[in-house]
Specification:
alpha/beta, 9-stranded mixed sheet, single chain, two-stranded antiparallel sheet
């Protein structure tokens, strides 16, 4: 059996991906499919944490069109990530996984208080940890939360699951001349102002030496293929010319 390239990863799932095919905002069939992939990589010996977004409920950056202040919209979005985390936990249990939801925002008995040492212990014990609540503060995206959690738990990589097959020079949905990158350096990603991940998240990953893999989660066995080191999507890392 091929050994996994990464022994611990943080999987970033956006709220938009979670709710893309559901009338009620949460696509449980999609969650089940993702968690089956997660279980397959855990069987290889890789521990998995999940940072979940809340964009299927409300995006903070869309606060202007909603009539809400940015701070209020961000708080609603953070609570939305807790809702999504509970859905992942419920589906995960049906898939035979032990799932723990943690949040830096106190939410009573709905989720455990986030503690990096305790989260790392859960991961080492074979549990899936869902990191909800973003960073716990407004004005920061869940991309940044994913980078922070990856650094805090000693993850080998941050996997950004999307609906596109990597990072492009422009939006391929509106620009037919857009080209896809197989590999990028953090410097080039920042210099080119590519919009697949926000700058604080990229800068933190660069500083901590945590590669970012952007890939289409809907491709068959995509997470497992990333874990095994197959060239899939776009790898962003330091020192790439």
């Amino acid at each position: 059996m091929t050994a996994p390239l990464y022994k611990r990863v943080i999987l970033k799932l956006s709220g938009e991906v979670l709710g893309s095919s559901s009338d009620n905002g949460i696509d449980t069939a999609f969650i089940a499919a993702v968690l089956k992939q997660v279980r397959s990589v855990m069987d290889l010996g890789t521990s998995v944490g999940i940072v979940v977004g809340g964009g299927n409920i409300l995006r903070g950056c869309d606060s202007g069109s909603s009539g809400l202040t940015r701070v209020t919209a961000d708080h609603i979005g953070m609570l939305g990530t807790v809702i999504n985390g509970l859905a992942i936990r419920d589906v995960g249990r049906r898939e035979g996984l032990e799932v723990v939801v943690m949040s830096p925002i106190p939410v009573g008995t709905l989720a455990a208080a986030y503690n990096p040492d305790r989260a790392t212990e859960h991961l080492a014990s074979g549990r899936v940890v869902v990191f909800a609540g973003g960073t716990g503060s407004p004005f920061f995206t869940t991309d940044t939360a994913a980078a922070i959690r990856a650094a805090e738990t000693g993850a080998d990589a941050l996997l950004k699951a999307t609906k596109v097959d990597g990072v492009y020079s422009a939006d391929p949905m509106v620009d037919s001349t857009a080209t896809r990158f197989n590999r990028l350096s953090f410097k080039d990603a920042l210099d080119l102002r590519l919009s697949f991940m926000d700058r604080p998240a990229l800068s933190l990953c660069e500083d901590r030496g945590i590669p970012v893999v952007v890939f289409n989660v809907n491709e068959e066995d995509s997470i497992k293929r990333v874990i095994l080191g197959e060239q899939i999507g776009t790898i962003v890392e330091g020192g790439v010319e």
